[in-house]
Design brief:
4% of the residues lie in helices and 44% in strands. The chain has 383 residues and is mainly beta. It has a single domain, classed as Neuraminidase (6 Propeller). The protein has a six-stranded antiparallel beta sheet with strand order 5-2-26-25-24-23, with no helix packed on it. A six-stranded mixed beta sheet has the order 3-4-22-21-20-19, with no helix packed on it. Strands 1-6-31-30-29 form a five-stranded antiparallel beta sheet. The protein is globular, with a radius of gyration of 21 Å.
Length: 383
């Protein structure tokens, strides 16, 4: 059965978790708030009501009536002016908010204005431009919102980058936390033509330990960009067109050994040395969330920014009571401009009974399901 509809639900964008939590005040270390995440010591627990941190989500059934609208693995989702942009299969798909299909932008190839491997994209709604990252040719290509090619530029020194986005003034941010032989590491800013301007974060090569994430940079509603740093100091950052500053720092009771920090291939499971890594980063104006995994277990962290509280969820059993059933962590999450955007694959819906009961019209011929939770806030766009 084909679907073109939106439904309001009490599903929540953090549908991945449940459990018991510890709630603590965040410490303000000057302008940097500390987020304490003890991994070893026992803590008192209390339930977390996720509905206090996230609004109800819209459920969007994406049009599956046309062959050209069919998606496979979703790699990224962004929403601008009530248009949904989805990265899948080296193409960008556009849908209306009711799920109806608009068009597919695919410029694959070796010719003028074409790319070989599309790994990231950015929407500059002010300039009506889509920028895409071709990781094979290590360049940025810029199109209008209909997919017409405008221009391109090579990334600084032909660098490998893990993530990029665009600032309100048209500049680009590029991020590469991984240690590779030579080249630029950290966060840097280039102008609209890719010309290097300044290095914003440098990561010392003595710190090699890390993990490759789906994304690092999150564009916020006011045009600023936030970042969960993948370096030894565990800082979180906010970047505007002309300023970068630290907002939070994660503090833990694990002291990672120097020999582990120097080994980017360290395996926590096979070598029980004190080590941990952060992942699952989400951030809006009201909430910051991430997960920490280490030898002593896993912790999902939620920071209530408005009330300056941190909730810590330890080694959860992956269920969050919602209405008349449970939803499980078979979802992929993206933060974008005060939205938590999740998608649920067809395979997960059909294989998990609770999902199938809730979404009975989903079949093997359907598209993935989107869930979108939006925060309502007042915004200052002077960035």
């Amino acid at each position: 059965m084909k679907h073109l509809s939106i439904k309001k639900s009490v599903l929540y964008a953090a549908l991945c978790v449940i459990s018991f939590t510890c709630c603590t005040n965040n410490k303000d270390n000057g302008d940097v708030k500390e987020i304490y995440v003890p991994m070893n010591e026992p803590v008192k627990t209390e339930p977390l009501d996720i509905t206090k941190l996230l609004p109800p989500a819209e459920v969007v059934y994406l049009d599956s009536s046309k062959e050209e609208s069919m998606l496979s693995l979703i790699k990224d989702v962004k929403i601008e002016e009530e248009i949904i942009y989805i990265l899948s299969d080296d193409a960008i798909y556009k849908f209306n908010m009711d799920g109806s299909f608009i068009c597919k932008i695919k410029r694959y190839g070796r010719g003028h204005g074409e790319y070989l491997r599309l790994t990231r994209f950015d929407i500059d709604i002010t300039r009506k431009e889509i920028s895409v990252h071709d990781s094979e040719q290590r360049k940025i290509l810029i199109y209008d919102l209909d997919g017409n090619f405008k221009r391109s530029f090579d990334i600084l020194d032909n660098e490998v980058v893990e993530d990029f986005t665009r600032l309100p003034n048209g500049d680009y941010l590029f991020y590469r936390p991984q240690k590779l032989k030579g080249g630029t590491r950290g966060l840097w800013q280039s102008d609209s033509n890719g010309v290097f301007k300044k290095h914003l974060i440098e990561i010392d090569d003595s710190y090699a330990f890390g993990v490759i994430l789906d994304y690092y940079l999150i564009k916020q509603e006011d045009g600023s960009v936030t970042l969960m740093g993948n370096e030894e100091h565990n800082y979180f950052y906010k970047i505007t067109s002309d300023t970068i500053y630290k907002t939070y720092q994660m503090i833990t009771d694990i002291e990672m050994k120097k020999n582990v920090q120097k080994n980017k291939l360290h395996d926590i499971k096979s070598d029980p040395s004190d080590a941990f890594f952060k992942y699952g980063y989400l951030e809006t104006d009201k909430m910051l969330s991430f997960a920490v995994s280490g030898t002593s277990g896993n912790v999902r962290v939620y920071v209530d920014k408005e009330n300056n509280y941190t909730y810590r969820i330890y080694n959860n059993d992956d269920k969050l009571p919602v209405e008349d059933g449970y939803l499980y962590p078979n979802m992929y999450y993206y933060s974008y401009k005060n939205m938590q955007i999740c998608y649920l694959s067809v395979e997960a819906i059909l294989s998990i009974e609770e999902h199938h009961k809730r979404f009975p019209d989903i079949t093997s011929e359907s598209n993935p399901l989107l869930l979108i939770a939006r925060e309502q806030i007042n915004v200052n766009y002077d960035q």
